[in-house]
Amino acid sequence: MARNKVVKLIGRLTHVFTVNKTPWIWRKYLMDDYEEMFSISYEYKDVNLRKNHILFPVLAGLILCYILGKYKVIIVSALESLVLLLDVGPKMHGVLLQVEKVCAMLLEKKLIYNKYDEVGIVLFGTAETNNELTKEVGGYENIVVLRSIKVVDGDLVDVLDQIPRGTVPVLDAIIVGMDMLIKKYGPTNKGKKRLCLITNALSCLRDPYEGTKEDQVSTIAQQMTEQAIKLECVVVRGKLSGDADKNVMDENDQLLELFTKRTWAKTLYVESATSLLRALRTRSIAPVTIFRGDLEVSSALKIKVDYEYRSINDPETVVPPEQRIKGYRYGPEVVPVSSDAWEAVKFKPEKSVKLLGFTDAKNILRQYYMKDVNIFIAEPGKREAVTAISALARAMKEMNKVAIVRCVWRQGQSGVVIGVLTPNVSVKENIPDSLYFNVLPFIEDLREFQFPSFKNLPTFQPTEEQQAAADNLVMMLDLAPPAKEENLKPDLTPNPVLERFYHFLELKAKDPDAAVPLLDEALKKITEPDAELLSQNKSVIDEFRRCFELKENSTKKKSTRSVKEKPSGSDDEKDAAEDHNVGKTLTNTDDNTAGKAEISDEKPSSALANNSSVSVEKIGNITSVQDFEAMLSRRDSPDWITKAIKGMRSKILELLEDSFGGSNYDKAVECLVALRKGCVLEQEPKQFNDYLQYLCKFCKEHGLNDFHELLDLKGMTLITKSEAVDSDVADEAARSFLVTKEPKVE
């Protein structure tokens, strides 16, 4: 038979066999409870195949027995093949320790989440040379293949524990890494192939034998595109030393930028070890299309930009619309609704994205955004659509406008979304312009939280000196100071808890008795204040400490007033009795007095403020002012403010009506003063002003002249505009508001 015959087997292999004394273990891969099928190629090679270890299924065994020869196994899957290209030249020695840790963390995560991925490591800038290209065609010196492309394992992590330091500055490893991927997989591999280059790009590139450096980059980029190889460049740039050649650095940056224009590549610049931790990602998340359709600018203009249901039992079977029926939960039951009934009552918008109009960008505030941001792009391959989207985005950018759109993602979708399109004008030639989309709220989605203004609390207002000290402290702690690089960027800042967990997991895999490691220095910069920043700004911190003196707030004793209002044996009574163990005694005298407590004569002021376990819902007779303040302070519903004001108004009238010989006048005035103060704090001047005018009329009609005089003596007046911005009473009018004393009837 022909010796170069290739046989492809598509099947499930769950057995162990040996090629070149290397065990290959095939297992069942489960994805959503279904086995994934792999395509396997067997090709003749000069390799010793130990047949006594072959335990294939019957069909595979028959074919292998028929085909005589020696074979090589090629895996065709969707797993990732990664080659790390690490610069170990002299100018990288200062950060190589962090590079080792970052690469080790990457491999640890792959061992957990992507244990069948394959990884290779190439070092460049070394004193030695060891790579296949040097042996085959010459050149490519000072480049060492530290590990060929193999399935990731624990030994690979150990290889990175001590990367050798190089002595020669070169940057020629991309070709070596690409050659490794091509030779390993060739055009048959359909998996993900990625090169990851970590360097500072400060070393001078060698001139090519033919053409320019730009021509060489273009040739490499073209080859990478043909082989579906992606390139990620992580450029580590901290504080540059004096020997850094800016011309060389700029030239290398331009060549790396050329890669991003000619092929699938991206370049990421990091300035610290903390950012480097997040620069290498275990996997990339591909964007998902949530809507595919036309953007309707008007009824006469559309810019060209489907869903299906499958059975749970058989995901391969598409359920047609006539076999589907709507169901709605009513308690534990699901009530089916026929299509006729549903069609009769449902809202029937058409699938569309329609432009409603434009508005100034300043009218749409950032806090209006409801969900994650999405991006609107033109239909791929449609040049006219790309031009139309670009023209729209650039016009909106020039006029500082945003577009309001009405979106129905699916045909017949009941929920209509109103959103805003913000222009995203690209600064790169190979990236088209687009529009950012954010969902806007309806009126029902808005929640108004009413908080009293600090401007109405004079004692809480800072002095100019205190304000300046606070401003300086905030500016000192700014993570994005002017004319400087932003620190702790979200997309470059890893989760320190997870990073420490992965590292500890790797240690436990090697040694079950391993102790929890100390927090890495790079992670401390995320979890702890920057010691260098604090030392440089010690004067700012000292000034803030001097302006704002800290005083210890003594713990107030919990009141037991609520015990009187609760039945004997209630939970509230028990809690109060347990907590109130500072000299007060709660005793029952006899069976006839059960439920009554003897309490020492401690002053029970601000009882409700000290006992947060009791929620006041109405204004009582004994502590009316405290009850009013407690209701105002409740933030579980905005209705409590209105309820508290109405309750206090009714309580004041009740006190006046039940007063005998002016016995309740002082308490009524106290409640009125509290009502005025509360209305000022909550910015409700109209309610108080209307009530005070009504109260004056009430006193006049009922002959309460003595109460008139008392209000006059207390200087009770309307809430002015200077106290509450919503008031329509000027200071002059408030001063002229007098409670006129009515003549006594003889």
From TrEMBL:
GO process annotations (BP): DNA recombination; double-strand break repair via nonhomologous end joining; telomere maintenance
The keyword Translocase is assigned to this record: no
InterPro entries, per the entry: DNA_bd_Ku70/Ku80, Ku80, Ku_C, Ku_C_sf, Ku_N, Ku_PK_bind, SPOC-like_C_dom_sf, vWFA_dom_sf
EC number annotated for this UniProt entry: 3.6.4.12
Domain of life of the source: Eukaryota
Positions with biased composition (Basic and acidic residues): 562-582
Gene3D superfamilies, per database record: 1.10.1600.10, 2.40.290.10, Ku, C-terminal domain, von Willebrand factor, type A domain
Region (Disordered): 555-611
Catalytically driven reaction(s): ATP + H2O = ADP + phosphate + H(+)
Record field: transmembrane: 54-71
Keywords: ATP-binding, DNA damage, DNA recombination, DNA repair, DNA-binding, Helicase, Hydrolase, Membrane, Nucleotide-binding, Nucleus, Transmembrane, Transmembrane helix
GO function term, MF aspect, one: ATP binding
Record keyword Flavoprotein present: no
CDD domains reported for this sequence: KU80 (cd00873)
Residue span, Ku domain: 316-457
Annotated GO CC locations: Ku70:Ku80 complex
Subcellular compartments: Nucleus
Pfam families on file: Ku, Ku_C, Ku_N, Ku_PK_bind
PANTHER family per the UniProt record, alphabetical: KU AUTOANTIGEN DNA HELICASE (PTHR12604), X-RAY REPAIR CROSS-COMPLEMENTING PROTEIN 5 (PTHR12604:SF4)
Family: Belongs to the ku80 family.
Protein name: ATP-dependent DNA helicase 2 subunit KU80
